[in-house]
Write a structure and sequence with these properties.
By secondary structure, the protein is an alpha+beta fold. The protein contains 1 helix and 2 strands; from the N terminus they run E-E-H. It has one domain. A two-stranded antiparallel sheet has the order 1-2. The relative contact order is 0.16.
Length: 98
C-alpha cells in the first residue's frame, strides 16, 4: 500500500499507522521519513517515484483498500456473495466496529 512496514489499526473510527522504520538522522539534525514509506495513512506523498506516472495511493484509495480488508477474516473465498456487487457504502451486517 506504500505505507512501509508497520501496523495499521482502526481506533475511534479513524485509521492509524505505526511504522517499524523511523527514518535516519541527517547532518541537519533532522530525521528522514521511513525509507520504506511512500505515503502517509492520510495519503500525503512522502517520496517521489522514478517513473513519470508512478504515484502513491491517495487518502480515499487507502481508506477503500483498508475497508475491504476488514471483510477478509469472515469472507475468505472469492465466490463469497459479499464480493458480488461490492458497495463500500454498505457496511457488512456481520462487522462490529472495534
Amino acid at each position: 500500500m506504500g505505507l512501509g512496514e508497520g501496523t495499521v489499526v482502526k481506533k475511534d473510527g479513524k485509521w492509524a499507522f505505526y511504522p517499524v522504520g523511523q527514518g535516519v538522522d541527517t547532518l541537519e539534525k533532522k530525521r528522514t521519513v521511513p525509507l520504506d514509506a511512500f505515503v502517509t495513512i492520510d495519503g500525503k506523498q512522502l517520496q517521489h517515484g522514478s517513473r513519470e506516472n508512478l504515484r502513491p495511493f491517495n487518502g480515499d484509495e487507502l481508506r477503500r483498500i483498508l475497508r475491504v480488508g476488514l471483510c477478509l477474516p469472515c469472507h475468505q473465498n472469492y465466490d463469497d456473495p459479499a464480493y458480488k456487487d461490492y458497495d463500500p457504502a454498505r457496511p457488512c451486517p456481520e462487522y462490529v466496529e472495534p
